[in-house]
Amino acid sequence: DVKHVQLDSMGYLQCWPLISTGQYFLGSHLCEITLKFFTSNYKDSADHLTFLYKFGSFLKINEFIEFRERLNNSLHYSAVTVEKMLLEIFLSSSHQTTLQLIEQMSVNPEHESIKFTSLEDNRDLDLCWTSDPEIRQLSKELIKTSFEHDIDLLQVRSLTLRVLCGSAQITNNDIVQNGNVENDKVKVKEPFNALENVYQQLSSMSNYILEKKYHKLPKNVINAPTDSRLFYLLEIPYLQFLKALVSALMSVYTSKQEKLSDFESSPVNKLSQAISLLSTESKSVDHTQMGSRCRILNLLTLIVEMVSFACLVCGICVDIVKPCTGSQLKKGKKKKNPMSSVHGKKVAPERESVQVKSVQDLLIVTNSALQDLETCVSFIEDKWREPLSCENDISNLMGMLSLEDVGLSNVRKVEKTMLDSYQLSLSEIHHILNVKTKYLSELQL
C-alpha cells in the first residue's frame, strides 16, 4: 500500500525528529512499525512475482524486482535498524538486561554488515511545493550533499553499535570460563582482539569525520531537509568520549597499571565537557525561540546517549574486576599462589587493588556527571515553561489582519501543542536519567 511505502519515502520526517528530540518511546514504536514493513515487504514480494509469472506479466517482473531491491537497500531501512538497536541499549533499565539484549542482537563487532555503496535515497523531497526562484530551489547537488551527510552519520551510528556490542562480549560467560588458566587465555583472546579491531576502526572513522569539512544546507531553501544530526554530534566530544571509554575498558581488562592511574578521568572528562557546553548554552540563549529549543534538545539527547554508554561500560568494568574482589576476600585462605586469575590472566594482588579502586572511582565520577546533567535538565525545564515568542510569526501576523479572533485562537492552540511536546520530551529524558541513576546504584563491587 502507498501508506506503507510512505514509511520509507516520508520516514525521514517522522523517525529522526522523534529520536533527536527525546520522544524515545514513540520513536521506538515507529521504528518497530517501519522495520515490520521492510521485512514483510521482502517476504511478500515472492508471492507477487509468482502471480506475475503465472498470469504471463513478464514485463512487470523486472519492475517488481527493482522495486523490492530499492526498498531493501534503502538508507532509511538501514538507519532505522541501527537506531532501533541503539534505542534498546540505552533505554535498558539494568546491566544484565542490557547484556542479554546485546547478545540477542547477534551483531558482529569486527565486520560491517551494511553495504554503504549500495544504499538508495528513497526520500520524497517534493512534498513541499515552492514558487521561489531557481536559486532557492532544492537542487540535485543539495540532495546529494544531504544524502552524503546521512551516509556518514549512519557509518558513525553503526560503528557505535558495534563498539558497544564488542565491549559487552568480552565478559561473555559462554566464552570466558574460569578454571584452566591456559584454556581461558585462548578463549579470551578472540573477544578482546575483536574489541581492539573495532577500536582501531573507531579511531580511523573518528579522524575521518573530525577532519572532513561539512557544509550545512542553506536555510533559504524552504523544501530542503533539516540539518543532519551529524552536525550536533560534531559540536560535542561525542566521538572522543567513545574512544576514551573503550580505551579505559581495555586498560581495565588487560590490567595495565600505568594506564589505570588516570583512565577514569579521561572518558568522564569528555562527558563533563559536553554537559558544561550544554549548561553554558542553556543559560545564554533565548528560550522563547523555537530554534534555540530545537538545538538544545538535539545536543541534550546526544549527551543522554553518552551517559547511557558510560553506564554500560561501568557495568562491564565491574564484571571484569569482580573476580579480583572475590580473590581479595579469600587471599587469607590461599597463600601458595600470590597471583590470581582474572578472565584467564594472572594479576598481582597490588595490581588488583589498583584495578578495583579505579573502577570504583569511575562509578563515582560517572554518577556525579549524571547528577550534573539532571540539574541542567531541570534548569531547562523551568525555562521552557515560558511561552514561545510568536510576535513575528507569519500565522500570528495574518491572524491580526482578521476581524475575528479565530486566527489568534488557532495560534494559541498550536503553541500549547508545542509546549506540551517540549514538556513530554523533557519528562522522558528525566525518566531515562532516573533509570540510569538506579542502573549505576545496582553496580556493586
From TrEMBL:
Listed A to Z, the keywords are: TPR repeat
Keyword Chloroplast attached = no
Tree of life domain: Eukaryota
Q: Name one Pfam family in it.
A: NatB_MDM20
* GO CC annotation: NatB complex
Q: Where is this region: Disordered?
A: 328-352
Q: Does the keyword Isomerase apply?
A: no
Which family is this sequence assigned to? Belongs to the MDM20/NAA25 family.
Name this polypeptide is given: Uncharacterized protein
Q: Which organism is it from?
A: Cuerna arida
